[in-house]
Amino acid sequence: MHAIYDWPIWIPVLAIFLLSLGAGELGFRYGRSHQVSDSERDILSALRTSTLGLVALLLGFSFAITSNRHNDRSRLVMDEANAIGTCYLRAGLVAEPASSQIRTALRRYTDMRIESFERGLDPQEFERLATGMHATLDELWTGVAHAVSADHDLALTSAIVPAANEVIDLSTTREWLRRYHMPASVVWLLGLSLVLCGAVTGHALGQAGQRHVGLALGLNLLILFVAFVVLDFDRPRRGLIRVDQTPLIQLRESMKGAQSPVLRSQRLFMLMR
């Protein structure tokens, strides 16, 4: 079912649009050929209003779910950048060679973390990077273990263990959020509801005896744009709405350049205000 998230976004959007137009045309022809009395027209109007209201409610709930999930993914990037930067700073407080081992692992992990987002649409490439990130996190923990073995008190004072734990925990959270989409059954239900909305609109126009092409097309496009945003929110690597990786990119620059991660954190804080 989740294979739908591997499709380019224009495929489901175009399919919904064409099916909605087709359903609208069928609804128009049926409504024009089956005229009803005024009392029955009132009943049909109430049913159409209820149907459109239900579709609007489903769109609203879907928009809230996917937009909140997009915000969670965006917030996670900032949290992960802060966690890596904190661990990088605390690594400078432990003895060598553990300090260099931890910092090297963090730099490599950040590089692969950014690359996995940029090139993650290729399954084989993403699998290679995911394996590399797991191996790098193992190297990070090995460096922490060496730091604790070399000087337990210094490692305790530097709080390097909880800092490394947070980096590893956020990596697990990111992997889970990557697979955490709106259920595919809800996506299919949303598409079916939009097609039904087109049929109901066409039936109403058929009852009126006029097509009103501009009005019908405008309504279908408006609903379709909302559906597009709903689907795009739930695809962090595809489409137009993507999760901003700026915090991790600036972190990588600060770790490879002369800028202190502390200054980097302060600048990011000012940008997020």
Q: Considering DSSP H and I runs of 4 or more, what fraction of the residues is helical? A: over 70%
Structural class: mainly alpha
Low-pLDDT regions: 261-273
- Which whole number gives the mean pLDDT? 82
Q: Radius of gyration, rounded?
A: 26 Å
In total, the number of domains comes to: 1
What does this structure look like?
This protein has 10 helices and no strands. It has 273 residues and is mainly α. The chain has one domain (35-272). Helix 3 (98-118) packs antiparallel against helix 9 (246-256). The longest helix has 54 residues, at 38-91. The radius of gyration is 26 Å and the shape is rod-shaped.
Blueprint of the fold:
Blueprint: H1 10-33, H2 38-91, H3 98-118, H4 123-150, H5 152-158, H6 160-179, H7 184-208, H8 213-233, H9 246-256, H10 261-272
Helix pairs in contact: 1-7, 1-8, 2-3, 2-6, 2-7, 2-8, 2-9, 3-4, 3-9, 4-5, 4-6, 7-8, 9-10
